[in-house]
Design brief:
Blueprint: E1 2-7, H1 10-26, E2 31-35, H2 38-43, E3 46-47, H3 66-82, E4 87-91, H4 94-106, E5 110-114, H5 127-133, E6 136-139, H6 142-150, E7 155-157, H7 161-165, H8 172-178, E8 187-191, H9 196-216, E9 221-226, H10 229-242, E10 248-252, H11 255-261, E11 264-268, H12 271-278, E12 283-287, H13 291-298, H14 308-313, E13 320-322, H15 328-340, H16 342-359, H17 363-376
Parallel strand pairs: 1-2, 1-4, 2-3, 4-5, 5-6, 6-7, 8-9, 8-11, 9-10, 11-12, 12-13
Amino acid sequence: MRIGIVAGEPSGDVLGADLIGELRRRHPQAEIYGIGGPRMLAAGCRSLFPMEKLAVMGLTEVLPHLWEILGIRKALLRHFIANPPDVFIGVDAPSFNTGLELQLRRRGIKTVHYVSPSVWAWRSYRVKKIAQAVDHMLTLFPFEAQFYAQQGMQVTFVGHPLANAIALEDQQAQARRSLQLAADAQVVAILPGSRFSEINYLLPDFLRTARHCRNEIPQLVFLVAAAHAGASQRISELAAQYAPDLTLRVLVDHTHEVMAAADIVLLASGTATLEAMLLKRPMVVAYRVSRLTAWIARRLLHIDRFALPNLLAGEMLVPEFIQDQIDPRPMAEKVLYFLHSDAERQRLRSRFSAIHQQLRCDASSKAADAVLALAAAR
């Protein structure tokens, strides 16, 4: 069996690796090739290009890299035509994968898209192209499956692998022992994102927020999660510039432990908000892109909330700050509110636990079922 697969960023690398592991468990000799990150490579994927080449966010931010990205997609298409897989899996990265899926499907190659493009949130006109490009959509969240079913597409809600990977029980004590933190410390985790653009856009205001909180509670411990060594270096540079008097502990590749050990998380919108929710942590969520990207997005958005916990709950469970709303003083007030309110933290734990149970569907197994069924029908 031959399986093509492409992931474009770290969150997709995690999902792709889990799915590859399940596929290989059932078909140990399967040839799996495309584009993946370190986890997918470790799981047995042969990557034809570095995944980092695709990890660019925003509408305007991609422009300097556009020709290189288009060149990679053309080269991949040629490779898949010359070496046709039984099924192709696009893991997230819709701007890259949908065009590739469309070309492959026109040539008779079955296509699966794993992780719904956010057509339910913005640019809903894209669903027509997606329906032409994708034989089977795999969604992580139930409201997404409902949307695609209404469009007449083949769709399966598989849940989220993180919901199975993360225990239902609280892991704070274990995480604090692992990071050598006092059991009674008050800990704030800061996650500015994995991309340099996210770090540059968000971390200065996160650091100012932390300073306001420290002025209120001097004994606060601040942990900053860095996705890689380059991110750690940039975090240290910005900390020296914007908060030289603030004591921070920067930890590379320990995102899970940092969030688990915290009392509250201050973070960039994205998959990390889901992990924080599954760890039952209160959070303050922010997101910022370039002004031009934001101007374009405002004209295409048709949702009134953006943080995953709020989308899954159908209500505003956690505070959101976007673009010009990002202001250190109000964000600090929200952080301090959660730190001071045991009742509010307990209320969120209860809501987060219910959502955790809903998403615990053994996602990689269900995704593998759909992929292999489609391959068998080829």
